[in-house]
Structures are given as C-alpha cells and as structure tokens.
Specification:
By secondary structure, this protein is of the alpha/beta class. The protein has 12 helices and 13 strands. One of its GO terms (molecular function) is transaminase activity.
C-alpha cells in the first residue's frame, strides 16, 4: 500500500531552500507564549524522583485524565491521553472501522488532508461531502451521502482550512445521522479555544454511544511540539482503543502531561482571551490586504486560517512555489484540501509577520 506524503512538508522544505526571505504561513504553529504555569511545571518536573522518568500509565496520567474528564463532563475511564490530536483521530477512526459496520469514512470537502491519509492507512474508503462557500456543512447532504457502509463521519470545528464553526444544531444532527446508520461521529475539536464566533458546540453536548471527541493542547497552549492530546470514547468503545494505543505508542511522555496539568489548573481565562484578541487583529489586518489585492477570501469564524482566491492564480503547488520565489510568502495550495478549493490558497495567521506578509501579497497581486 502506498501512502501520500502531505504537501505541508514539501512546501516547508521549498520555502527553507528559497534564496530570499520568506514569511512562513504554512503550518499552524502558534507563535505566542505558552502559559507560564506550563513552563513552571516543566522546571518542577526536572527535580522529581527517578521513578517519574519511567513509563507512565499507558492511557495517560490519572490526574490529567481526571482533570480533562471533569472539564468535559465525562468519566475519566473514557479518556485516553494521546500523542497529540493526530493519534487521537487515528484511534477514533480505527475504532469506527473495526466495528464491522461498514468501511466508508465520510469526510468534508475541503478537508484537512491527514483525515483521508489516515482513512487509506486504515484500509477504509473515502467519500466526500461538499461544504458551502463559507465552509458550513449541511447535515442533509451528509444524510444523503450516508449508507449502511458508513463507518464514520469525520468533522473538524472550528475548521481547518475554512475557519467555519458548526453550530449546535449541526452537531446534534450529525450525531443523529451517525446513530441512524450505526456509524461513529468523530469530532475533532482541537481549535475549540479559537472560536471567534461564540457559536462553537461540542459533540459531547449530545449523549450518545455514536460519537468520539478528539482534542489536544497543541493549539490552545501553543505547544505543538509537546504532543499531548486526548480522545473521549463512549464506555463501550474505549477498551480496544486503549489496547491499540498501547501497542502503537506504549505511553505518552510524562513531563509534558505533568506540565499541561499544571497549566490547566493555574492558567487564567485571560490567557486564552488575549490570544483570541490577537488572532482577531491578525484576521482584520490580513483580510484588509486581501481586499487591496482584489482577492476573494473566507473570513474565519474560528481556528486561524484564511483561504483566498486570486484572479487567474489557481491554488496549485506550482503557484505556491512561485509565490514563495516572487512574493516571499509561503502558503498552502488549495488542491491539498480537496477538489472544491483547488482554485484557492490557504494562509495560517500564526506568525508575527502577518502585516508584512499582507503587504507583500497586496503589492504582488494589486
């Protein structure tokens, strides 16, 4: 079986090799500070007893699982701490497929490209449901696409790449569709702290044995390198997921879990509010420049990505490389996210050089 390497790596490597200064707007690595309590937790961990440097519980440190469970209104036994949201989604999709209730995974178009990649890796079949021009997903379209072969419906809200935020009625309807077809709704909520609309709704708001929620602290605490995520399973699905996690990873690293727990307990709400305010400013700065360049674009309601379409400049890999060489701005080709946005480019607003990048684009396309 052959796997496709995500285009992220190709674009980043191309930008690194460029013979000019390039503003990186490729990956979602927040450039702001992590919580101070997290740094303090890491410093404290270095002084702990030697036994704390050995294997931890495979499913995650109990105190962290209990903290997550209390915040999400579930039992700690339903929580598996994972190697980032990437592994959490892998475990969720694998668990959906191994139930022998079909081999088809319903994905949105546009789509975060790791979902179709995981589908292929797990031996599932991809089927796509188009979103509207704002990135919203119509449950009626999902219902029309679903069948007895549907094993899972995978959604991401707030969304990468469109910035859409699904309201409560959408999430409730998706859970109902999953129940009707004996499928699993996999709800990736990794950008939940970057809801700019006030409309975010978690799939956990529906009490169902047909939904798995995944998340991570990578984005919310600006620690993508720590790889601390989690998945929340229905009680009847969690044990096999724990076994798969143990076989794949043995356990997640202890020091980052300890530091995340400290940060969860001690970080005030203002930390997250300030980061959302910073993101709103960047959205305004960037979209103003896109207006000046005559571009069509999506205004994110959440997450931190903007998709833009420039006249006579389709979102191909070739054009992304050209933009790096000629404008000094690195984005992602729209074709990486599915057929429906192949004319678009995606830019991540997680760089202190957003204003500079915006000026370069306005000059280049203006």
């Amino acid at each position: 079986m052959e796997y496709e390497t995500p285009l992220f790596f190709h674009v980043m490597q191309y930008a690194d090799r460029a013979d000019r200064d390039v503003v990186d707007m490729v990956s979602g690595n927040p450039d702001w500070e992590p919580p101070e309590a997290l740094r303090e937790g890491l410093r404290d961990y270095a002084s702990l007893e030697p036994d704390r440097f050995q294997y931890g519980p495979s499913e995650g440190l109990l105190e962290l699982r209990e903290e997550i469970a209390a915040r999400r209104g579930v039992d700690a036994e339903q929580v598996i701490v994972t190697n980032g949201a990437g592994e959490a989604n892998y475990l969720a999709m694998a668990r959906a497929l191994e139930r022998d209730s079909g081999d088809e995974i319903l994905l949105t178009d546009p789509v975060y490209p790791y979902y179709p990649g995981k589908t292929t890796m797990l031996g599932g079949t991809q089927r796509f449901v188009a979103t509207d021009e704002t990135g919203q997903l119509d449950p009626a379209d999902v219902r029309d696409a679903a069948s007895e072969e549907t094993a899972a419906i995978v959604v991401n809200s707030p969304n990468n790449p469109t910035g859409a935020v699904y309201p409560a009625e959408t999430m409730e309807a998706l859970v109902e569709i999953a129940e009707a077809y004996d499928a699993i709704l996999v709800s990736d909520e990794v950008y939940d702290h970057y809801d700019l609309s006030g409309e975010f709704a978690s799939a956990l708001e529906s009490d169902s044995a047909h939904r798995i929620v995944t998340n991570a602290f990578s984005k919310s605490m600006a620690i993508t390198g720590f790889r601390v995520g989690y998945a929340i399973f229905p009680p009847e699905l969690v044990e096999n997921a724990k076994s798969r996690h143990m076989l794949v990873n043995v356990a997640t690293t202890r020091p980052p879990q300890y530091a995340v727990l400290r940060a969860l307990r001690e970080t005030p709400p203002e930390y997250y509010e300030e980061n959302r305010a910073l993101l709103r400013e960047r959205v305004d700065t960037f979209t103003d420049a896109l207006d000046a360049a005559g571009a069509e674009y999506t205004t994110p309601r959440g997450s931190f990505y903007v998709m833009a379409r420039f006249e006579d400049y389709p979102g191909t890999l070739e054009n992304v490389e050209r933009l790096i060489d000629e404008a000094g701005v690195a984005g992602m080709p729209g074709e990486a996210f599915g057929d429906s946005r192949s004319a678009w480019l995606r830019f991540a607003l997680v760089t202190p050089r957003v204003e500079e990048a915006a000026e370069r684009l306005a000059t280049y396309f203006g």
